Amino acid sequence: MRTPRRKRLLAAGTAWAVAAAGAVALSFGLAGSASAGEFLVNGGFETNALNPWTCTGSTGSVVTGHARTGSYALAGAASASDTAQCVQTVAVAPNTTYTLSAYVNGAYVYLGVNGGASTWTPSTGGGYQKLSVSFTTTATQTSATVFTHGWYGQGTYYADDVSLDGPGAPASPSASASPSKSASPSPSASASPSGSPSASASPSSSPSTSSSPTTPPPPGGHALVGYLHASFANGAGYLKMADVPDSWDIIDLAFGEPDSITGGTIHFNRCPATECPGVESDADFKAAIAAKQAKGKKVLLSIGGQNGEVQLTTTAARDNFVNSVSAIIDKWGLDGLDIDFEGHSLSLNTGDTDFKNPTTPVITNLISAVKTLKAKYGAKFQLTMAPETFFVQLGYQYYGSGPWGGQDPRAGAFLPVIYGLRDDLTLLHVQDYNSGSIMGLDNQYHNMGSADFHIAMTDMLLTGFPVAGNTNNVFPALKPSQVAIGMPANSYAGNGYVAPAVVNQALDCLTKGTSCGSYTPRAGKQPNLRGLMTWSINWDNYNGNEFSKNFHNYFG
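^ thats the sequence. predicted structure below, dont judge the formating
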């Protein structure tokens, strides 16, 4: 959840491809469009310059010796903390279908449009591979930002012959401008690098934005959950705890991180004044937390995020985790813990195939540690989780390394943690962003950035599903009051942003059974669905509080 992470990833997508290695390759349906114009400038990089492309930091360059055609190609130097995303913003026509294509060379290279569809290479392939994805603009959309990027730790990728085809006369594109810094990881947020946010697709119908449920709300009422950038700064700007609007019911402090990956000891360092000018004192921060709690708000420590890899491989690490987390909770007077483990924090050992009875130490030690914390603080202890879809819903198809090996052992790895702590779990809010295509219970692939994606992913949690397709091994449904939907606050905060009307369409379908589009929830209407989570409070503030205002307009 922080970019460097950019919450991750545009991330989930890449992992998808890895998970399916040795299994079934995912396919992407591409809508056709009449090719009447080239809308990108310098898509072949033959000017021997990046302009009008812009890349994160200094990760992008134009090089010789790697071109597919001509003399030059784009080189993106992906690192452990940067995917080397390069973008170009172009003028487009409303209600028009465009096809974006490129030839790429490297491990896990992505191609897509901000706030919309994306695709990626499933393997290195040993040479250039063609990627292609189509998207349709909304009724009011006049610009789109396309991107290509690599993946964390995979090294330099190359791209050439990038093209955006569509009907009509192409307009002059302009380079996009980014916020002062890249977005922080959302609960792992894969922040969209620079670029003007593109308009989100509007739903086919216009659901009400002010209607409220006709049945009683879930225990504790509907909840709005957000992450507060408490230990770092980025383009969203620093926000004092006292200035967090009272619209937020659960505030997750991002992030608690480990001293070492396998040591188990967690620290929570507040953002220094050199990075966050105007940051309040520790005393004022603690007093503001108490003031929020006096109004009924909950303030939790979120552990993990993009940079906080935690592997509790030993019982000693487990105990260090318990002791250090307890100390942080006690120091600041917090209400509980949010688990935002990403990256390689959780994976399953070969042969660990039963999510109900896990044997992998990083899984069993985490469950044990959280149960110990719950026992120490009692019923008041709040426990939330913010896994990516790769670690949860992907488990419908793939679990661990699979029966024959070769899959990514992280696939579905959050399922045993959720199951083992189901009686202690306050709220699960999976990150429905920075995700690859995921198969829903209709056995169709769903792509982020649409109401259908949120409906299908949430329905899996409310209905339950056979893990790895095994009907004798079913992950049971969670209570609606334990489920919230994770969404990015704007297009800078993560790929998969949707406009308020699309948020409301998903809520209408899930809670009222209306406006469901192409996916009908198996769980039926669930008015007690708990609410929404977003990465992040800071990005929502940056965006005029659009996300939180819409939440309260909807639920009252």
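Residues 2-36, 169-215 have pLDDT under 50 and may be disordered.
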